[in-house]
Design brief:
23% of the residues lie in helices and 32% in strands. The protein has helices at residues 35-44, 56-61, 73-81, 86-96, 106-109, 211-223, and strands spanning 12-16, 19-23, 25-28, 51-53, 64-67, 101-104, 114-115, 121-122, 129-133, 145-153, 163-169, 171-175, 181-186, 190-197, 200-203. Helix 1 (35-44) links the parallel strand 3 (25-28) and strand 4. The radius of gyration is 17 Å and the shape is globular. The protein has a 9-stranded mixed beta sheet. It has a 4-stranded mixed beta sheet with strand order 8-7-9-12, covered by helices on one side. A two-stranded antiparallel ribbon has the order 1-2. It has a single domain (12-223), classed as Rossmann fold. The chain has 6 helices and 15 strands. The protein is of the alpha/beta class and 226 residues long. It starts with 11 loop residues before the first strand and ends with a helix.
Length: 226
């Protein structure tokens, strides 16, 4: 995809001919993400600044959207829906408007139809599938799945490269359609490490904690033209 995007002020920028076109990168604040770390990682990856926002109007105008997520599926889904108009703005900008979208950890899991952590809770339903607890297939397997692990590509990868990333989760996304699985990892069996569909990418691992590997992924996302 070429070099990293640069810019001025609070935007990532791209060059169109001789004109610099500013891009708004919206980092969604719904009370369920480690926003400071993700914002710093995006800046280190090439964005001079990031708009941290819970304003649906800002989301509707964004060129790129990042949805982090820390905690339970239920708490994250409820936090998102507690902000009036935010879910609708996300759907309008991403699913209708085609803005590149990156979901991180529970932000990826929310793409599913539903999750079962602390009861069944509806997700965004952008990628058909379900979020279930990781099964302990071996007493030696520790849950949560925490620490560095390999990311292995599928034929349907988008943005993702093979490497090693940092994971921290007890639940995992099981897409209905295998073509939406972009990468896998192994923790007592295969677990989905990344999903992709249209202009939507989600990663179960934390790019902001995955050092050079994570920064390379974020740099690719900032330049992605799906």
């Amino acid at each position: 995809m070429g070099g990293r995007a640069g810019g001025a002020g609070w935007c990532c920028s791209r060059v169109s001919g001789t004109k610099i076109v500013a891009e708004v990168v919206a980092l969604v604040d719904y009370g369920a993400g480690n926003l400071h770390s993700v914002a710093n990682a995006l800046k280190a990856a090439g964005a001079d600044g990031v708009t941290v926002t819970s304003d649906p109007m800002v989301v509707r105008a964004a060129d790129r959207i990042v949805l982090p997520g820390v905690g339970s599926f239920k708490a994250c889904a409820e936090g998102l829906r507690a902000i009036s108009g935010l879910e609708e703005a996300l759907s309008e900008r991403v699913r209708v408007g085609g803005a590149p979208f990156l979901g991180i950890c529970v932000g990826m899991q929310l793409l599913a139809n539903f999750g079962v952590e602390h009861g069944t809770t509806a997700g965004l339903g952008w990628i058909c599938g379900e979020v279930h607890a990781i099964e302990r297939t071996d007493p030696a397997i520790k849950i949560p799945h925490m620490g560095w692990n390999d990311v292995e590509l599928t034929p349907h990868s988008a943005l993702i490269e093979p490497g090693e990333a940092y994971f921290l989760h007890s639940y995992h996304f099981v897409p209905d359609n295998p073509q939406h699985i972009a990468a896998m990892t192994d923790h007592g069996g295969g677990l989905v490490a990344a999903v992709a569909k249209d202009t939507i990418v989600g990663v179960q691992f934390h790019p902001e904690k995955s050092q050079g590997y994570g920064l390379a992924l974020l740099a690719e996302f900032l330049e992605w033209r799906p």
